[in-house]
């Protein structure tokens, strides 16, 4: 019995990790130091993380590291006193099993059904989905036996992530074999924890995000303060819920989400062309971008020089991308727009909802504290076609707002 009690380390529970049981297996590879961060990410998100380490893994990272990060005891031995049925209890309790790193040795033993330690015994005993994150030298990964083991594990229903291509241990240069980054594994765990029968599973979702840039000359442009945080949060949540997601985005201040197909654009006309290409196959369109309403009527081929005199730029109006999609929308598609307003906000948003034939419009009041561009929170009001009363949400993170929007999108899809 340990002389201290374990405290839960949850900081900001988020969907779908909150109160879910994750069995995190750690095999004996140098990449196990990164698994400590994965344990931290899962625990912060509200998951109960049970760490099972192989004996070799404890040569790389001490069990106390994982105990401190998860607030839970670490399991190491199949034959530890009083732990005879740990592999059964842990396997049954898990909502998902993750092995990171999954070494060549661990994969070989799992592929042949061995149960000579606690981790492989848990793999045989669990009925939860299993995710493996391979990590090894690139020659070991490329070996025919490892590839055969990987293929066999996938045929058994295991999910395998492709190893990253990058610098390897011990000065071995670079190649495919690095364990995927903890944030990538974390995102895939979330996808496995979502309801596999949800309406977005297998659907094609098209999301736009970020600003556009309208060239003045080769070095200057017109743009706005949009960072792309809201659109990328929606894209990430849609992929996590099982959708095939395409993100059409201008220059982003944040990373493209895991699993999302990214189409980069610069100008509003480029964004419109990309949306037109993708829209016919899309079940859902979420227009969260902030494309420029105007562009310079004339673009200089050379950098404009200072002359000491006042200079004016004539502007031409860009097309309204969302309005232009009306005739190209797929039958039964759900279409979501955004409105950033400063005056008569609800009335202006409702006019856009009707004029552009939207199912939902997400209203941002530019005067609301904690909302708008370049912040991680948002306070929105959602207007739904055919519903008289607007739905005002409290101040939430943009990831929470993304899930709230998709909850309503899924409800609409269920009714069609």
What is the global morphology?
elongated
Q: How many separate domains?
A: 2
Report the count of strand segments.
21
Chain-averaged pLDDT: 93
Regions with little confidence, pLDDT below 50 for 5+ residues: 1-7
CATH superfamily membership of the largest domain:
CoaB-like
CATH architecture of the largest domain: 3-Layer(aba) Sandwich
Commentary on this structure:
- With 416 residues, the protein is of the alpha/beta class.
- The protein folds into two domains: 21-193, Flavin prenyltransferase-like (Rossmann fold); 204-414, Rossmann fold.
- Helices cover 31% and strands 22% of the residues.
- It has 13 helices and 21 strands.
- The protein has helices at residues 32-44, 63-70, 86-93, 104-111, 118-125, 138-142, 144-155, 182-193, 229-240, 268-278, 321-324, 345-355, 398-414, and strands at residues 21-26, 48-53, 96-102, 130-134, 159-160, 164-167, 174-178, 204-209, 214-217, 220-222, 244-249, 261-264, 284-287, 294-296, 315-317, 334-341, 360-365, 377-378, 380-384, 391-392, 396-397.
- Helix 9 (229-240) crosses helix 13.
- Residues 1-7 have low confidence and may be disordered.
What's the helix and strand layout?
Blueprint: E1 21-26, H1 32-44, E2 48-53, H2 63-70, H3 86-93, E3 96-102, H4 104-111, H5 118-125, E4 130-134, H6 138-142, H7 144-155, E5 159-160, E6 164-167, E7 174-178, H8 182-193, E8 204-209, E9 214-217, E10 220-222, H9 229-240, E11 244-249, E12 261-264, H10 268-278, E13 284-287, E14 294-296, E15 315-317, H11 321-324, E16 334-341, H12 345-355, E17 360-365, E18 377-378, E19 380-384, E20 391-392, E21 396-397, H13 398-414
Parallel strand pairs: 1-2, 1-3, 3-4, 4-5, 8-11, 8-13, 11-12, 13-16, 16-17
Antiparallel strand pairs: 6-7, 9-10, 14-15, 17-19, 18-21, 19-20
Helix pairs in contact: 1-2, 1-8, 3-5, 4-7, 9-13
């Amino acid at each position: 019995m340990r002389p201290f009690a374990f405290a839960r380390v949850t900081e900001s529970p988020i969907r779908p990790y909150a109160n879910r049981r994750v069995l995190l297996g750690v095999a004996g590879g140098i990449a196990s130091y990164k698994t400590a961060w994965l344990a931290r990410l899962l625990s912060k998100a509200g998951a109960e993380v049970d760490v099972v380490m192989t004996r070799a893994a404890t040569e790389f990272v001490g069990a106390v590291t994982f105990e401190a990060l998860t607030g839970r005891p670490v399991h190491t031995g199949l034959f530890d006193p009083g732990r005879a049925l740990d592999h059964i209890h842990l396997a049954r309790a898990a909502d998902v099993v993750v092995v990171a790193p999954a070494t060549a040795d661990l994969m070989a033993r799992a592929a042949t059904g061995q149960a000579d330690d606690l981790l492989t015994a848990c793999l045989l005993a669990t009925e939860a989905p299993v995710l493996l994150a391979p990590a090894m030298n690139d020659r070991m990964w490329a070996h025919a036996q490892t590839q055969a083991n990987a293929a066999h594990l996938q045929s058994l229903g295991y999910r395998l992530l492709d190893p990253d291509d990058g610098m390897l241990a011990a000065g071995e240069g670079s190649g495919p074999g690095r364990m995927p980054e903890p944030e990538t594994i974390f995102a895939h765990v979330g996808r496995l924890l979502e309801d596999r029968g949800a309406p977005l599973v297998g659907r094609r979702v098209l999301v736009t995000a970020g600003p556009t840039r309208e060239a003045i000359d080769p070095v200057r442009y017109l743009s706005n303060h949009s960072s792309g945080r809201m659109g990328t949060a929606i894209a990430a949540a849609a992929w996590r819920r099982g959708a095939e997601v395409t993100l059409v985005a201008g220059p982003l201040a944040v990373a493209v989400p895991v699993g999302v197909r990214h189409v980069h654009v610069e100008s509003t006309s480029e964004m419109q062309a990309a949306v037109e290409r993708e829209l016919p196959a899309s079940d859902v369109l979420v227009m969260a971008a902030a494309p420029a309403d105007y562009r310079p009527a004339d673009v200089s081929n050379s950098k404009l020089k200072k002359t000491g005199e006042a200079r004016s730029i004539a502007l031409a109006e860009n097309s309204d991308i969302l309005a232009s999609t009306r005739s190209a929308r797929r039958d039964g598609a759900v279409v979501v727009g955004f409105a950033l307003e400063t005056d008569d906000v609800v009335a202006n948003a409702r006019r856009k909802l009707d004029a552009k034939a939207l199912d939902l419009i997400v209203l941002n009041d530019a005067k609301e504290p904690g909302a708008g561009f370049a912040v991680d929170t948002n306070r929105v009001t959602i207007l739904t076609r055919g519903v008289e009363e607007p739905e005002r949400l409290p101040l939430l993170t943009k990831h929470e707002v993304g899930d709230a929007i998709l909850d309503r999108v899924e409800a609409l899809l269920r009714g069609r």
